[in-house]
Amino acid sequence: MRAVVQRVSEASVAIGGEVAGRIGRGLLVLVGVETGDSRSDAEWLAAKIIALRVFPDQEGRMNHSLVELGGDALVVSQFTLHAGTKKGNRPSFVRAAPPEEAVPLYEGFVAEIERGLGRPVARGVFAADMQVALVNDGPVTIIIDSRSRE
Fold first, then answer.
1. First-to-last CA distance in the chain?
2. What is the mean pLDDT of residues 118-122?
3. Domain boundaries in the chain?
């Protein structure tokens, strides 16, 4: 699984003009499932994200996690994170897991984030045409891949 994690002062996701999820200060997590990913990938990635120390302490250093901050999370599925661009100019998405494989892992990932935070998180709708809006705070954007464990 691959995630793009952005520290935000606010973020939202809309589907068909209707807001499906909105958060204040916290993390916007775009997550993609790759063919062959497993439950352990979802668990590892969720634990890593909620423990990321990307929020400033009193000296302005990134020392606090989402849990410590009590911040919000918005999780949006994004299969395009596994786009291949090696050949030609049209991205290939053959590495992205098909829905029957990806949906349970996406749902498990969201459940792990909720368990770690102790509350529900905002989210998009898997495979929907979504419009994501955000104010990136910092900016802080981090890419994490469960396969490389970094």
1. 11
2. 96
3. 2-145
